[in-house]
Structure formats: structure tokens, C-alpha cells
Amino acid sequence: MASLQSLVFTVCCLILSTHLTGSEADNDHEAASLSYDEDSFKLGIETKRHFVMFFAPWCGHCKNLAPTWNELAKIYNKEDGSPVTIAKVDCTEHTALCADHEVTGFPTLKLFETGGKSFKRYSGKRDLESLKNFVQEQILGDGEAAAPGEGEAPAGEREESLIVLDDDNFDAKVARGVFFIKFYAPWCGHCKKLAPTWDQLAETFANRKEVSIGKIDCTQSTVICKRYEVRGYPTLLWFQDGEKIGKYQSSRSHDALKEYVITQLKEAAGGTEEEKTEDKKEDAEEEIQGKVQDLTVDTFKSFLSSRLVFVKFFAPWCGHCKRLAPTWEELASVVKDEDVSVAKVDCTQHKGVCDDHQVRGYPTLKIFRDGELLEDYKGSRTVDDLQKFVTKHLTKRDEL
């Protein structure tokens, strides 16, 4: 009987061993690439550069990359003198760590400088040669091949694509120069969606000395976020020589953000103050035409003060609002040549504005002239009917 139990136990062990081996093959948990948790990640990154793969075991692209990642690890992790460590983090086990680093897709590959305050996101090909070239370029900064243990760029000369700010370093870092900074919270859905685009923006301007792209976690850096009255996430602010110059409130696409940075740099580079002011006014008017304007508690009154504006008060979770959204965008395009603006207010973010205008349900549509309410819209929500409503109020003004 004992012999039979021993046999059964042996078979079970073999089955379990086979299952684990298969799982390890899927995730490629070999010794070459270091697997980090929250504690080991923090400890490791304090003392050395790290190229980290954030992954999920079920992710097909991660499985495909795993053997290549371990080949890369065999090259750089084999000796103490290597200038970089290759590591990985399982985001299904260490969700907080991945959230802290705004990982929104798998695999996400980031090369962190020593201390973890800055990083470069990798978005190129995932073959071994491309990954090696990327690591070597970051180590040398000139694209020449470098073997582990060879020279590294002097401190302060290495490229920092995204500046990570906090309560301790904010004032010193931002005191001189131009900064475009994202104020965010790791749990914020909009922040997670913006994260890869913000990384891409940082890479776009990585070699432009006249501007730095940064971010600050408001759940960790409450002093700075409170100072600049950050009440919603993400908040995107433009700084020059330590002073807040402006707040970005338009589309969060890479092209739109890039155009904003270029425009701000051009304005800072030349022209008299009067010319700059006039140009800003013209640019603002051009930007208004054909687009739905996002209004906030800070911009609502000033935007409505001198024009005819048709406003949609909405909540993102509202089904009727979601169905109206594309129609509202189309309406803005249809009336772009008319003397009217189409706008919207998110009542979950700007409750005070909605309360002031007695918004009781969503969507609520109101038309204003020079800041004064003209009429609530109660009709059909087709583009034609909405346009007729706008035209009626345009005609009334012409008749005055």
C-alpha cells in the first residue's frame, strides 16, 4: 500500500512539474531576466539603469517577446559591470506598481535612468538586434555599438525624455526654462489613456533643449498640486521660469499636443507683447470655429461673455449624452462659418457651473448670448433641428 501511495505521489509530482514547466515556458520565467515586485523594483532601480518589460502572462505579444527578452537579459545581466539590468514585472501580480508607472497596454517597455526619476519608453521593433541597439544608443547617446561594461555618458548629459517631478524637486527643476507638465493620478482613467501619448510627446521633444515635458503624481505630491489648484485629472499646465503661463484644454491627441508646444515656443521666441496678445486672440478665434469647446469652471464665464454660444451640459456616463456626442460635433462643423460657438460642460467635473444654471438632467442644452441665457432647447436632437434652432437666434440678433 505504501508503495502504491509513493507511486501516486511521484506521478502527481511529475504532472505538476510538467504543468509548471509549460506555464514557465508560456511566461518564459528564466533566470536571465530578473522578475521584480514592488520592493525589488524600487531597490534595483535606485542603484542602476534598468530596461523593464511590464507584461501580463495571458498577453500573446508578451509571450512572443519573452524568449527575445531573456536573450537580451543574457547579454546584459551576465556581469556586474554591465551598465543596465534587464528585468520584468508581472502586472497581474503587481498591479499597484504597474499603475504607478501608467502601464495601460502589454508589453510596455521602459528604460529607467538610475533612481527612476526619468525614463525612455521603447516603441520600436521587438527583435533582439533592435532592442540591443536601443539600449546601446541610450547608454552612449550617439547610436554607436557598446558592449556591457563599456563607457557611459557623463551624468547630466544623458537624454531625459520625460521629467518625473515631485514635491521635493519641482521648484528646483522648473525654476529655469520651459516645461509642459501633466498633473495626474494613477487611478484616473483619462490619465491612463493619456499616458502613452504623453510618453510619445516627451520623446518627440527629447532633443529640443528649449522645452521639457514632465509629469507629477498628485496622489504623492499633494503640496505642489494644491499650490496650482489642480482639481481634476489630468491637468496640463505650461510653465516658464517657474511661473504658470497657461492651461491646455483642447484635444489630447499627440498631434494636437505637439502643435500646442510648437505654437507656445514660437510665441515665446519673438514678437512684441501686443503682437503676441493679438496673435493669441486670432488663434483662439480660429480654433473655436468648427470645434466643440470644452468649458470649465475657469473658462465658462469669459468664453460666454461676448458671443452667441450653444452649450451642452452632460455627464460622461449618460447614454443619451453618448448618443448626442457625434451629432454635437457635427453641429459645430456645420455652423463653423456662422457667428456662433458650440460648447460643452462636463457636470461631473464642473458641478458648480451646472448647479448655477439649474441643470437637473442630462443632456441639458442652453443657448446664451453675451453671457445671458436666451432659451433652453427642448426639441429633436437631429443636426437639422439643432441647426434651425441656432439659425433662429442668429436671425433674431440680425433683426435687432
Structure description:
The protein is of the alpha/beta class and 400 residues long. Helices cover 44% and strands 21% of the residues. It contains 14 helices and 15 strands. It has helices at residues 2-27, 38-47, 60-76, 95-100, 128-140, 170-174, 189-204, 222-227, 254-269, 273-288, 300-304, 319-334, 351-356, 383-399, and strands spanning 34-35, 49-55, 84-90, 108-112, 118-122, 162-165, 178-184, 212-217, 235-240, 243-248, 293-295, 308-314, 341-346, 364-369, 372-377. The strands form two sheets. Strands 1-3-2-4-5-6-8-7-9-10 form a ten-stranded mixed sheet, with helices on both faces. It has a five-stranded mixed sheet with strand order 11-13-12-14-15. Helix 7 links the parallel strand 7 (178-184) and strand 8 (212-217). The longest helix is centred in the N-terminal third of the chain and has 26 residues, at 2-27. The chain is elongated, with a radius of gyration of 27 Å. The termini are far apart. The relative contact order is 0.07. Mean pLDDT is 80; it is low at 1-30 and 141-159. InterPro entries: PDI, PDI_thioredoxin-like_dom, Thioredoxin-like_sf, Thioredoxin_CS, Thioredoxin_domain. Residues 1-25 form the signal peptide. Belongs to the protein disulfide isomerase family. Keywords: Redox-active center, Repeat, Signal. It comes from Plakobranchus ocellatus.
Which helices and strands, and how do they pair?
Layout: H1 2-27, E1 34-35, H2 38-47, E2 49-55, H3 60-76, E3 84-90, H4 95-100, E4 108-112, E5 118-122, H5 128-140, E6 162-165, H6 170-174, E7 178-184, H7 189-204, E8 212-217, H8 222-227, E9 235-240, E10 243-248, H9 254-269, H10 273-288, E11 293-295, H11 300-304, E12 308-314, H12 319-334, E13 341-346, H13 351-356, E14 364-369, E15 372-377, H14 383-399
Parallel strand pairs: 1-3, 2-3, 6-8, 7-8, 11-13, 12-13
Antiparallel strand pairs: 2-4, 4-5, 5-6, 7-9, 9-10, 12-14, 14-15
Helix pairs in contact: 12-14
